[in-house]
Specification:
With 333 residues, the protein is α/β, with parallel strands linked by helices. The chain has helices spanning 18-24, 39-45, 61-66, 85-90, 103-118, 121-129, 156-167, 181-187, 194-200, 220-225, 243-252, 291-309; strands at 5-9, 29-33, 51-54, 72-75, 94-96, 148-152, 171-175, 190-191, 203-206, 231-234, 257-260, 280-282. It is built from twelve helices and twelve strands. 40% of the residues are buried.
Length: 333
């Protein structure tokens, strides 16, 4: 009798893995759920698995090198900064993501942060709950219509933000090294360079991936060059912002406020200085969440595992160069 297929789940943020179990059972696969998110635990399980499903946990070089049978690593989500893609490619392992995941949710959350900052919703709510009735606390409020929103990055999420922001009368500018004339025309946005976007936007939304080039893209120099009435929103990755510089910017009034759904360390240390600031709205990496988005994510990720393990091409192969490798593990036809 042949050995059953095994799929390692490194971590997940939802209540059940039943959708994955149901889909993977169609190929006789069993789920192995890691007991914790340590490299040691992953390395213990890695030699026996045919596939890895991972959410936020780090799938390191050591883990991948230990996964001697693994054919595919699927990210529960879009970004791949927690996976050593280079090592996976070198070893002939396909890396797959779920690019359609939570697009509506994250774009909605970015707009919610923009609106909450612009209208001072959290501050005013707390003022009333403290039995006050002062609407003039914090920075001045300005009419939203006619203000400028700058989008750094122009992928699927940023593209969904555009019509939502334009519905509130915001003028939308965009910066991305890959922004084409066709997309500028299609979405009716103004293409600008990064420095102009930073210095002229009333709101800046970060929607780019975390790469070596975007690490601390928003640093002290760029924060100082923003308008003092401007707001910064981040629903992308925490390390795109230098958070020490951001604390200084918020504390000294370089900018009016910030809305953050992501941080460099999650959950943050209790003594994180940003937690003490009234002009920072922080949510617990919740932008992706809805009942629909989570279910779709689970199903799509599991279906990608099934495709690769049954010799089919995955829908979202993120390292296509692996197909040219003589050591390609998957028997993709």
């Amino acid at each position: 009798m042949s050995e059953r297929i095994k799929v390692l789940v490194t971590d997940y943020a939802w209540s059940t893995l039943e959708p994955e179990r149901d889909i993977l059972s169609s190929i006789g696969a069993d789920l192995i759920v890691a007991e914790d998110e340590s490299e040691t635990t992953f390395v213990k399980h890695a030699p026996n698995v045919d596939a890895i499903l991972t959410n936020w946990a780090r799938v390191s070089t050591h883990v991948i090198e230990s996964a001697i049978k693994c054919q595919v690593i699927v990210r529960y989500g879009i970004g791949l900064d927690n996976i050593d893609v280079e090592t996976a490619t070198r070893l002939g392992i396909t890396v797959v993501n779920v690019p359609t995941y939570c697009l509506e949710e994250v774009s909605d959350h970015a707009m919610a942060l923009i609106l909450s900052l612009a209208r001072k919703i959290p501050r005013l709510d707390q003022e009333v709950k403290k039995r006050g009735w002062n609407r003039n606390i914090g920075p001045q409020m300005y009419r939203l219509r006619g203000q400028k929103l700058g989008l750094i990055g122009f992928g699927k999420i940023a593209q969904l933000i555009v019509p939502k922001a334009q519905g509130f009368g915001l003028q939308v500018m965009a910066y991305s090294p890959t922004l084409t004339d066709e997309r500028v025309k299609k979405f009716n946005v103004q293409r600008v360079d990064l420095e102009k976007l930073v210095t002229t936007s009333d709101f800046i939304s970060l929607n780019c991936p975390l790469t070596p080039k975007t690490h601390h893209l928003i640093n002290a120099q760029r924060l100082q060059s923003m308008k003092s009435t401007a707001y910064l929103v981040n629903t992308a990755r925490g390390d795109i912002i230098d958070n020490n510089a951001l604390h200084e910017a918020l504390n000294k009034g370089w900018i009016a406020g910030a809305g953050l759904d992501v941080l460099p360390e999650e959950p943050p240390s209790p003594d994180l200085n940003l937690l003490d600031l009234d002009n920072a709205i922080i949510t617990p990496h919740a932008a992706f969440w809805s009942e629909e988005s989570i279910y779709d994510l689970q199903v799509t990720a599991a279906e990608e595992v099934v495709r690769v393990l049954t010799s089919q091409m995955p829908l979202s192969l993120m390292n296509p160069e692996v197909l040219q490798n003589s050591n390609l593990r998957a028997k993709i036809e």
